[in-house]
Amino acid sequence: HGSSEMKGMAIGDVGDSSSASGLEELARKLDACDPLRCFRDKFKLPDREYVLRTLSTTRTEDGKIDPKQEIIYLCSNSLGLQPKRTREDLLEVLDDWGGLGVMSHTTGKRPTEGSDEEPRRLLAEYIVGAMPDEVAVMESLTANIHTLLAAFYRPTAEKNCVLIEKSAFPSDYYAVESQITHNGYNPRDNLIEIELRPNDYLSTEQINEVIRQNAHRLAMIWLPGIHYFTGQLLDIKTITEAGHRLAKCPVGWDLAHAVGNVPLKLHDWGVDCAVWCTYKYLCGSPGGVAGIFVHSRHHAEEGSYVPVRGAPGQVVRGPRLTGWWGHRMSTRFQMSNCMEAERGAAAFQRSCPSMLLNSALRSSLLIFKEVGGMSPIREKSIKLTGFLKTLLTQGEFALPKNVLKIITPLDKAQRGAQLSLQFSVDVDKVYSQLTKNGVICDVRHPNCIRMAPAPLYTSFEDVLKAVKAIQEAVLNLLKQE
Protein backbone atom coordinates (compact mmCIF):
# COMPACT_ATOMS: atom_id res chain seq x y z
CA HIS A 1 0.00 0.00 0.00
CA GLY A 2 2.81 2.41 0.92
CA SER A 3 4.59 1.73 -2.35
CA SER A 4 1.53 2.62 -4.43
CA GLU A 5 1.09 5.87 -2.50
CA MET A 6 4.73 6.79 -3.09
CA LYS A 7 4.27 6.26 -6.83
CA GLY A 8 1.55 8.88 -6.80
CA MET A 9 3.78 11.56 -5.31
CA ALA A 10 5.65 13.92 -7.63
CA ILE A 11 9.23 13.34 -6.55
CA GLY A 12 10.71 14.43 -9.86
CA ASP A 13 9.12 17.87 -9.66
CA VAL A 14 8.55 19.49 -6.27
CA GLY A 15 6.08 21.91 -7.83
CA ASP A 16 3.88 23.54 -5.19
CA SER A 17 6.05 22.01 -2.47
CA SER A 18 9.10 24.13 -3.33
CA SER A 19 8.88 26.26 -0.17
CA ALA A 20 10.72 25.10 2.95
CA SER A 21 7.53 24.14 4.77
CA GLY A 22 6.13 22.45 1.68
CA LEU A 23 9.27 20.39 1.19
CA GLU A 24 9.30 19.36 4.83
CA GLU A 25 5.70 18.20 4.55
CA LEU A 26 6.47 16.32 1.33
CA ALA A 27 9.44 14.56 2.93
CA ARG A 28 7.33 13.51 5.91
CA LYS A 29 4.62 12.13 3.63
CA LEU A 30 7.14 10.20 1.56
CA ASP A 31 8.61 8.67 4.70
CA ALA A 32 5.19 7.82 6.11
CA CYS A 33 4.24 5.74 3.07
CA ASP A 34 7.69 4.19 2.51
CA PRO A 35 7.30 0.38 2.56
CA LEU A 36 10.95 -0.01 3.61
CA ARG A 37 10.86 2.44 6.52
CA CYS A 38 10.86 -0.33 9.14
CA PHE A 39 14.29 -1.54 8.00
CA ARG A 40 16.00 1.62 9.23
CA ASP A 41 15.66 0.24 12.76
CA LYS A 42 17.69 -2.83 11.81
CA PHE A 43 20.88 -0.75 11.47
CA LYS A 44 23.04 1.15 13.92
CA LEU A 45 22.87 4.77 12.85
CA PRO A 46 25.99 6.77 13.77
CA ASP A 47 25.67 8.16 17.27
CA ARG A 48 25.96 11.95 17.40
CA GLU A 49 27.64 12.02 20.83
CA TYR A 50 30.08 9.26 19.87
CA VAL A 51 31.00 11.04 16.65
CA LEU A 52 31.39 14.32 18.53
CA ARG A 53 33.69 12.83 21.16
CA THR A 54 35.79 11.05 18.53
CA LEU A 55 36.22 13.97 16.15
CA SER A 56 36.87 16.45 18.94
CA THR A 57 40.15 14.65 19.63
CA THR A 58 41.23 14.37 16.00
CA ARG A 59 39.93 17.48 14.26
CA THR A 60 40.39 21.19 14.46
CA GLU A 61 37.69 23.42 15.88
CA ASP A 62 36.37 23.99 12.36
CA GLY A 63 35.75 20.26 11.93
CA LYS A 64 33.84 19.64 15.13
CA ILE A 65 30.22 18.63 14.92
CA ASP A 66 27.51 20.82 16.38
CA PRO A 67 26.17 18.71 19.30
CA LYS A 68 22.63 19.84 18.49
CA GLN A 69 22.74 18.20 15.05
CA GLU A 70 21.76 14.60 14.38
CA ILE A 71 23.89 12.54 12.02
CA ILE A 72 22.73 12.16 8.42
CA TYR A 73 24.61 9.30 6.77
CA LEU A 74 25.01 9.53 2.98
CA CYS A 75 28.22 7.56 2.53
CA SER A 76 27.18 3.98 1.78
CA ASN A 77 29.11 4.25 -1.48
CA SER A 78 32.19 4.13 0.75
CA LEU A 79 31.08 2.10 3.80
CA GLY A 80 27.66 0.74 4.68
CA LEU A 81 26.27 0.94 8.19
CA GLN A 82 26.37 -1.90 10.70
CA PRO A 83 23.30 -4.15 10.98
CA LYS A 84 22.27 -4.43 14.62
CA ARG A 85 22.32 -8.22 14.46
CA THR A 86 25.99 -8.28 13.37
CA ARG A 87 27.34 -7.87 16.90
CA GLU A 88 25.24 -10.75 18.25
CA ASP A 89 26.15 -12.99 15.34
CA LEU A 90 29.87 -12.28 15.73
CA LEU A 91 29.68 -12.97 19.46
CA GLU A 92 28.26 -16.42 18.66
CA VAL A 93 31.29 -17.10 16.46
CA LEU A 94 33.65 -15.92 19.19
CA ASP A 95 31.81 -18.04 21.77
CA ASP A 96 32.25 -21.12 19.57
CA TRP A 97 35.94 -20.40 19.11
CA GLY A 98 36.45 -19.67 22.80
CA GLY A 99 34.41 -22.62 24.03
CA LEU A 100 35.36 -25.24 21.47
CA GLY A 101 38.78 -24.28 20.15
CA VAL A 102 39.67 -26.26 17.04
CA MET A 103 36.39 -28.17 17.26
CA SER A 104 34.64 -24.94 16.20
CA HIS A 105 35.80 -25.72 12.66
CA THR A 106 33.15 -28.43 12.36
CA THR A 107 30.78 -28.06 15.34
CA GLY A 108 28.97 -25.39 17.35
CA LYS A 109 26.39 -22.80 16.37
CA ARG A 110 28.51 -21.43 13.51
CA PRO A 111 31.09 -23.97 12.26
CA THR A 112 33.87 -22.45 10.15
CA GLU A 113 33.62 -25.27 7.62
CA GLY A 114 30.98 -24.30 5.11
CA SER A 115 30.57 -20.80 6.55
CA ASP A 116 30.63 -19.35 3.04
CA GLU A 117 27.77 -21.50 1.76
CA GLU A 118 24.85 -19.39 3.01
CA PRO A 119 26.36 -16.00 2.00
CA ARG A 120 27.13 -17.47 -1.43
CA ARG A 121 23.55 -18.64 -1.95
CA LEU A 122 22.11 -15.36 -0.68
CA LEU A 123 24.34 -13.32 -2.99
CA ALA A 124 23.42 -15.47 -5.97
CA GLU A 125 19.67 -15.37 -5.40
CA TYR A 126 19.04 -11.91 -3.99
CA ILE A 127 21.91 -9.68 -5.14
CA VAL A 128 23.74 -10.63 -8.36
CA GLY A 129 21.29 -12.80 -10.31
CA ALA A 130 23.32 -15.99 -10.58
CA MET A 131 23.13 -19.71 -10.04
CA PRO A 132 24.51 -20.66 -6.60
CA ASP A 133 27.59 -22.40 -8.00
CA GLU A 134 28.49 -19.32 -10.08
CA VAL A 135 29.34 -17.32 -6.94
CA ALA A 136 32.18 -17.67 -4.45
CA VAL A 137 32.76 -15.66 -1.29
CA MET A 138 36.49 -15.14 -0.95
CA GLU A 139 39.46 -12.86 -0.27
CA SER A 140 39.49 -9.16 -1.22
CA LEU A 141 38.52 -7.13 -4.27
CA THR A 142 41.98 -6.58 -5.73
CA ALA A 143 43.11 -10.15 -5.03
CA ASN A 144 40.01 -11.38 -6.82
CA ILE A 145 40.64 -9.09 -9.81
CA HIS A 146 44.05 -10.73 -10.14
CA THR A 147 42.50 -14.18 -9.78
CA LEU A 148 40.04 -13.60 -12.60
CA LEU A 149 42.45 -11.76 -14.89
CA ALA A 150 44.92 -14.62 -14.49
CA ALA A 151 42.23 -17.00 -15.73
CA PHE A 152 40.55 -14.90 -18.41
CA TYR A 153 43.32 -12.73 -19.86
CA ARG A 154 45.00 -15.10 -22.30
CA PRO A 155 47.00 -12.99 -24.74
CA THR A 156 48.17 -14.21 -28.14
CA ALA A 157 50.54 -12.67 -30.66
CA GLU A 158 47.58 -10.95 -32.33
CA LYS A 159 45.10 -10.42 -29.48
CA ASN A 160 46.92 -9.19 -26.38
CA CYS A 161 45.26 -5.94 -25.24
CA VAL A 162 42.94 -5.17 -22.33
CA LEU A 163 40.24 -2.50 -22.60
CA ILE A 164 39.39 -0.40 -19.54
CA GLU A 165 37.99 3.08 -18.98
CA LYS A 166 40.18 6.18 -18.63
CA SER A 167 40.78 7.09 -14.98
CA ALA A 168 39.77 3.65 -13.75
CA PHE A 169 39.81 3.05 -10.00
CA PRO A 170 43.38 2.19 -8.91
CA SER A 171 42.40 -1.35 -7.82
CA ASP A 172 41.47 -2.12 -11.40
CA TYR A 173 44.18 -0.11 -13.13
CA TYR A 174 47.10 -1.51 -11.16
CA ALA A 175 45.83 -5.09 -11.41
CA VAL A 176 45.31 -4.88 -15.18
CA GLU A 177 48.63 -3.10 -15.66
CA SER A 178 50.55 -5.70 -13.69
CA GLN A 179 48.80 -8.64 -15.38
CA ILE A 180 49.77 -7.24 -18.78
CA THR A 181 53.37 -6.86 -17.60
CA HIS A 182 53.33 -10.34 -16.01
CA ASN A 183 52.39 -11.79 -19.39
CA GLY A 184 55.37 -10.13 -21.05
CA TYR A 185 53.63 -7.16 -22.65
CA ASN A 186 53.91 -3.40 -22.21
CA PRO A 187 50.93 -1.52 -20.74
CA ARG A 188 51.84 1.50 -22.87
CA ASP A 189 51.02 -0.58 -25.93
CA ASN A 190 48.57 -3.15 -24.64
CA LEU A 191 46.34 -1.19 -22.25
CA ILE A 192 43.56 0.56 -24.18
CA GLU A 193 41.68 3.25 -22.25
CA ILE A 194 38.29 4.59 -23.32
CA GLU A 195 38.58 8.37 -23.21
CA LEU A 196 35.83 10.25 -21.41
CA ARG A 197 34.49 12.92 -23.74
CA PRO A 198 34.43 16.46 -22.26
CA ASN A 199 31.20 17.16 -20.36
CA ASP A 200 29.90 13.71 -21.25
CA TYR A 201 29.65 10.14 -19.99
CA LEU A 202 30.82 6.76 -21.21
CA SER A 203 27.99 6.12 -23.62
CA THR A 204 27.22 2.56 -24.64
CA GLU A 205 27.64 3.59 -28.27
CA GLN A 206 31.10 5.02 -27.59
CA ILE A 207 32.22 1.90 -25.72
CA ASN A 208 30.91 -0.40 -28.44
CA GLU A 209 32.67 1.68 -31.09
CA VAL A 210 36.00 1.41 -29.25
CA ILE A 211 35.46 -2.34 -29.00
CA ARG A 212 34.74 -2.47 -32.74
CA GLN A 213 37.85 -0.46 -33.62
CA ASN A 214 40.11 -2.64 -31.48
CA ALA A 215 38.37 -6.01 -31.85
CA HIS A 216 41.32 -7.53 -33.70
CA ARG A 217 43.67 -6.98 -30.74
CA LEU A 218 41.46 -7.30 -27.66
CA ALA A 219 42.08 -10.27 -25.37
CA MET A 220 39.97 -8.97 -22.47
CA ILE A 221 37.48 -6.22 -21.60
CA TRP A 222 37.34 -5.04 -17.97
CA LEU A 223 34.90 -2.29 -16.96
CA PRO A 224 33.05 -0.95 -13.89
CA GLY A 225 29.35 -1.65 -13.44
CA ILE A 226 29.06 1.78 -11.83
CA HIS A 227 31.85 4.32 -12.13
CA TYR A 228 33.17 5.18 -8.68
CA PHE A 229 33.67 8.90 -9.43
CA THR A 230 30.73 9.90 -11.63
CA GLY A 231 28.26 7.32 -10.34
CA GLN A 232 27.31 6.37 -13.90
CA LEU A 233 25.67 2.95 -14.34
CA LEU A 234 26.86 1.20 -17.49
CA ASP A 235 24.70 -1.05 -19.66
CA ILE A 236 26.31 -4.30 -18.57
CA LYS A 237 24.15 -6.55 -20.74
CA THR A 238 24.60 -4.64 -24.01
CA ILE A 239 28.34 -4.05 -23.56
CA THR A 240 28.94 -7.70 -22.67
CA GLU A 241 27.09 -8.78 -25.80
CA ALA A 242 29.14 -6.34 -27.90
CA GLY A 243 32.40 -7.67 -26.47
CA HIS A 244 31.44 -11.22 -27.33
CA ARG A 245 30.08 -10.41 -30.79
CA LEU A 246 32.73 -7.95 -31.95
CA ALA A 247 35.93 -8.88 -30.14
CA LYS A 248 35.13 -12.51 -29.29
CA CYS A 249 36.87 -12.07 -25.94
CA PRO A 250 35.89 -12.39 -22.28
CA VAL A 251 34.13 -9.42 -20.65
CA GLY A 252 34.66 -8.92 -16.91
CA TRP A 253 33.17 -6.40 -14.51
CA ASP A 254 34.14 -4.67 -11.27
CA LEU A 255 30.82 -4.39 -9.45
CA ALA A 256 32.09 -2.79 -6.23
CA HIS A 257 29.65 0.12 -6.58
CA ALA A 258 26.83 -1.92 -8.12
CA VAL A 259 26.18 -4.82 -5.71
CA GLY A 260 23.48 -3.98 -3.21
CA ASN A 261 22.83 -0.81 -5.19
CA VAL A 262 21.15 -1.88 -8.45
CA PRO A 263 19.57 -5.15 -9.63
CA LEU A 264 21.94 -7.46 -11.50
CA LYS A 265 21.32 -10.49 -13.72
CA LEU A 266 24.85 -11.68 -14.33
CA HIS A 267 23.95 -15.16 -15.55
CA ASP A 268 21.21 -14.03 -17.93
CA TRP A 269 23.38 -11.20 -19.27
CA GLY A 270 26.13 -13.66 -20.17
CA VAL A 271 28.80 -11.91 -18.11
CA ASP A 272 31.99 -13.99 -18.13
CA CYS A 273 33.27 -12.97 -14.73
CA ALA A 274 32.87 -10.27 -12.09
CA VAL A 275 34.19 -9.15 -8.72
CA TRP A 276 32.80 -7.04 -5.90
CA CYS A 277 33.47 -5.98 -2.35
CA THR A 278 30.79 -6.25 0.33
CA TYR A 279 31.47 -3.31 2.64
CA LYS A 280 29.63 -0.60 0.70
CA TYR A 281 25.90 -0.99 0.06
CA LEU A 282 25.96 -4.61 1.27
CA CYS A 283 27.05 -3.51 4.78
CA GLY A 284 29.28 -6.57 5.20
CA SER A 285 31.82 -4.90 7.56
CA PRO A 286 34.91 -2.71 6.92
CA GLY A 287 37.32 -4.58 4.67
CA GLY A 288 34.85 -7.46 4.57
CA VAL A 289 35.17 -10.59 2.48
CA ALA A 290 34.71 -10.03 -1.25
CA GLY A 291 32.95 -12.07 -3.92
CA ILE A 292 33.35 -13.35 -7.45
CA PHE A 293 31.05 -14.50 -10.24
CA VAL A 294 32.17 -16.99 -12.88
CA HIS A 295 29.61 -17.96 -15.50
CA SER A 296 28.76 -21.66 -15.61
CA ARG A 297 30.18 -22.03 -19.11
CA HIS A 298 33.62 -21.35 -17.62
CA HIS A 299 33.44 -23.94 -14.84
CA ALA A 300 35.87 -26.81 -14.71
CA GLU A 301 34.27 -30.22 -14.35
CA GLU A 302 33.86 -30.98 -10.66
CA GLY A 303 36.67 -33.23 -9.50
CA SER A 304 38.82 -32.53 -12.56
CA TYR A 305 42.45 -31.47 -12.35
CA VAL A 306 43.12 -27.73 -12.53
CA PRO A 307 44.75 -25.54 -13.65
CA VAL A 308 44.51 -26.50 -17.29
CA ARG A 309 46.62 -24.25 -19.47
CA GLY A 310 44.23 -24.21 -22.40
CA ALA A 311 45.08 -22.69 -25.75
CA PRO A 312 44.44 -18.97 -26.22
CA GLY A 313 41.04 -18.46 -27.75
CA GLN A 314 39.56 -21.54 -26.12
CA VAL A 315 36.75 -21.16 -23.60
CA VAL A 316 38.21 -20.56 -20.13
CA ARG A 317 37.41 -23.43 -17.78
CA GLY A 318 38.45 -23.20 -14.17
CA PRO A 319 41.14 -21.19 -12.36
CA ARG A 320 44.79 -20.70 -13.20
CA LEU A 321 45.81 -19.72 -9.67
CA THR A 322 44.82 -22.53 -7.34
CA GLY A 323 44.85 -23.17 -3.61
CA TRP A 324 43.80 -25.94 -1.30
CA TRP A 325 40.37 -24.44 -0.57
CA GLY A 326 39.54 -24.79 -4.27
CA HIS A 327 39.93 -28.57 -3.88
CA ARG A 328 36.52 -30.18 -3.47
CA MET A 329 35.48 -30.54 0.13
CA SER A 330 34.78 -34.28 0.05
CA THR A 331 38.48 -35.12 -0.45
CA ARG A 332 40.17 -31.87 0.62
CA PHE A 333 41.62 -33.24 3.84
CA GLN A 334 43.13 -36.32 2.23
CA MET A 335 46.05 -34.02 1.38
CA SER A 336 46.71 -35.88 -1.88
CA ASN A 337 48.33 -32.91 -3.63
CA CYS A 338 46.36 -33.98 -6.69
CA MET A 339 43.89 -31.19 -7.32
CA GLU A 340 40.23 -32.09 -7.68
CA ALA A 341 38.33 -28.93 -8.56
CA GLU A 342 35.48 -27.86 -6.31
CA ARG A 343 32.16 -27.30 -8.04
CA GLY A 344 31.76 -24.05 -9.99
CA ALA A 345 33.24 -20.73 -8.92
CA ALA A 346 34.33 -22.29 -5.62
CA ALA A 347 37.23 -23.86 -7.54
CA PHE A 348 38.73 -20.35 -7.68
CA GLN A 349 39.02 -20.23 -3.86
CA ARG A 350 42.49 -20.58 -2.42
CA SER A 351 42.49 -20.06 1.34
CA CYS A 352 40.48 -21.08 4.38
CA PRO A 353 37.69 -18.50 4.82
CA SER A 354 37.40 -16.04 7.68
CA MET A 355 34.48 -17.14 9.84
CA LEU A 356 34.17 -13.65 11.31
CA LEU A 357 33.96 -11.95 7.91
CA ASN A 358 31.56 -14.56 6.53
CA SER A 359 29.34 -14.16 9.57
CA ALA A 360 29.26 -10.36 9.24
CA LEU A 361 28.29 -10.65 5.58
CA ARG A 362 25.58 -13.20 6.38
CA SER A 363 24.08 -10.84 8.97
CA SER A 364 23.54 -8.17 6.34
CA LEU A 365 22.43 -10.46 3.53
CA LEU A 366 19.64 -11.85 5.69
CA ILE A 367 18.20 -8.32 5.75
CA PHE A 368 18.33 -8.14 1.95
CA LYS A 369 16.53 -11.49 1.87
CA GLU A 370 13.86 -10.16 4.23
CA VAL A 371 13.36 -7.13 1.99
CA GLY A 372 12.84 -9.44 -0.98
CA GLY A 373 16.01 -8.73 -2.95
CA MET A 374 17.01 -5.76 -5.04
CA SER A 375 13.74 -4.81 -6.77
CA PRO A 376 12.11 -3.02 -3.80
CA ILE A 377 15.46 -1.49 -2.87
CA ARG A 378 15.94 -0.14 -6.37
CA GLU A 379 12.37 1.17 -6.46
CA LYS A 380 12.96 3.28 -3.36
CA SER A 381 16.48 4.22 -4.45
CA ILE A 382 15.20 5.78 -7.67
CA LYS A 383 12.78 7.92 -5.64
CA LEU A 384 15.27 8.76 -2.90
CA THR A 385 18.11 9.83 -5.20
CA GLY A 386 15.58 11.49 -7.49
CA PHE A 387 14.41 13.53 -4.49
CA LEU A 388 18.02 14.52 -3.78
CA LYS A 389 18.56 15.54 -7.41
CA THR A 390 15.33 17.55 -7.49
CA LEU A 391 16.05 19.41 -4.25
CA LEU A 392 19.51 20.34 -5.51
CA THR A 393 18.14 21.76 -8.76
CA GLN A 394 14.66 23.09 -7.90
CA GLY A 395 12.95 24.96 -5.12
CA GLU A 396 14.09 26.95 -2.13
CA PHE A 397 17.34 25.09 -1.43
CA ALA A 398 18.65 24.82 -5.00
CA LEU A 399 22.00 26.40 -5.86
CA PRO A 400 23.02 28.12 -9.12
CA LYS A 401 24.49 25.85 -11.81
CA ASN A 402 27.72 27.85 -11.82
CA VAL A 403 28.20 26.90 -8.15
CA LEU A 404 27.03 23.28 -8.07
CA LYS A 405 26.86 20.80 -10.92
CA ILE A 406 25.62 17.21 -10.73
CA ILE A 407 28.10 15.17 -12.78
CA THR A 408 26.14 11.93 -12.38
CA PRO A 409 23.74 11.19 -15.26
CA LEU A 410 20.33 12.73 -14.60
CA ASP A 411 18.64 9.77 -16.30
CA LYS A 412 17.66 7.38 -13.50
CA ALA A 413 18.41 4.38 -15.74
CA GLN A 414 22.05 5.47 -15.92
CA ARG A 415 22.76 5.84 -12.22
CA GLY A 416 22.45 4.04 -8.91
CA ALA A 417 22.08 5.62 -5.48
CA GLN A 418 25.07 7.97 -5.76
CA LEU A 419 25.12 11.56 -6.94
CA SER A 420 28.49 13.21 -7.51
CA LEU A 421 28.40 16.95 -6.89
CA GLN A 422 30.97 19.26 -8.44
CA PHE A 423 31.54 22.59 -6.67
CA SER A 424 33.09 25.84 -7.87
CA VAL A 425 33.92 26.77 -4.26
CA ASP A 426 36.54 25.07 -2.07
CA VAL A 427 35.26 21.50 -1.77
CA ASP A 428 37.25 20.79 1.39
CA LYS A 429 35.59 23.73 3.13
CA VAL A 430 32.16 22.56 1.98
CA TYR A 431 32.93 19.08 3.29
CA SER A 432 34.19 20.44 6.60
CA GLN A 433 31.02 22.49 7.08
CA LEU A 434 28.81 19.53 6.17
CA THR A 435 30.62 17.37 8.71
CA LYS A 436 30.22 20.06 11.33
CA ASN A 437 26.48 20.02 10.62
CA GLY A 438 26.31 16.25 10.96
CA VAL A 439 26.16 15.27 7.27
CA ILE A 440 28.52 12.36 6.56
CA CYS A 441 29.59 12.04 2.92
CA ASP A 442 32.98 11.88 1.17
CA VAL A 443 35.27 13.98 -1.01
CA ARG A 444 36.95 13.04 -4.27
CA HIS A 445 39.39 15.67 -5.42
CA PRO A 446 39.76 18.01 -7.10
CA ASN A 447 36.23 19.35 -6.52
CA CYS A 448 33.68 16.59 -5.98
CA ILE A 449 31.53 15.42 -3.06
CA ARG A 450 29.77 12.06 -3.35
CA MET A 451 26.43 11.44 -1.67
CA ALA A 452 24.59 8.12 -1.70
CA PRO A 453 21.25 7.74 0.10
CA ALA A 454 20.80 4.08 1.12
CA PRO A 455 17.19 2.87 0.79
CA LEU A 456 17.40 0.57 3.81
CA TYR A 457 18.21 3.33 6.30
CA THR A 458 18.11 6.77 4.66
CA SER A 459 14.88 8.74 4.96
CA PHE A 460 13.50 11.44 2.70
CA GLU A 461 13.80 13.84 5.64
CA ASP A 462 17.50 12.96 5.83
CA VAL A 463 17.90 13.95 2.20
CA LEU A 464 16.10 17.26 2.72
CA LYS A 465 18.23 18.12 5.76
CA ALA A 466 21.40 17.29 3.82
CA VAL A 467 20.43 19.62 0.97
CA LYS A 468 19.69 22.39 3.47
CA ALA A 469 23.17 21.86 4.93
CA ILE A 470 24.76 22.04 1.47
CA GLN A 471 23.04 25.33 0.72
CA GLU A 472 24.05 26.77 4.08
CA ALA A 473 27.69 25.69 3.65
CA VAL A 474 28.00 27.06 0.13
CA LEU A 475 26.29 30.38 0.86
CA ASN A 476 28.54 30.91 3.88
CA LEU A 477 31.60 30.35 1.70
CA LEU A 478 30.33 32.69 -1.00
CA LYS A 479 29.85 35.43 1.60
CA GLN A 480 33.48 35.03 2.64
CA GLU A 481 34.80 35.44 -0.91
TrEMBL record:
Signal peptide (UniProt feature, chain positions): none
Keyword Hydrolase assigned: yes
GO biological process: anthranilate metabolic process; L-tryptophan catabolic process to kynurenine; NAD+ biosynthetic process
SUPFAM superfamilies: PLP-dependent transferases (SSF53383)
GO molecular function terms listed in the Swiss-Prot or TrEMBL record: kynureninase activity; pyridoxal phosphate binding
Residue ranges of the TM segments: none
Record keyword Hydrolase present: yes
One cellular component term from this protein's GO annotations in UniProt: cytoplasm
Alphabetized Pfam families for the sequence: Aminotran_5, KYNU_C
Residues covered by the Aminotransferase class V domain: 72-290
Domain of life: Eukaryota
Keywords associated with the record: Hydrolase, Pyridine nucleotide biosynthesis, Pyridoxal phosphate
Listed NCBIfam families: kynureninase
Name of the protein: Aminotransferase class V domain-containing protein
Originating organism: Schistocephalus solidus (Tapeworm)
Lineage: Eukaryota, Metazoa, Spiralia, Lophotrochozoa, Platyhelminthes
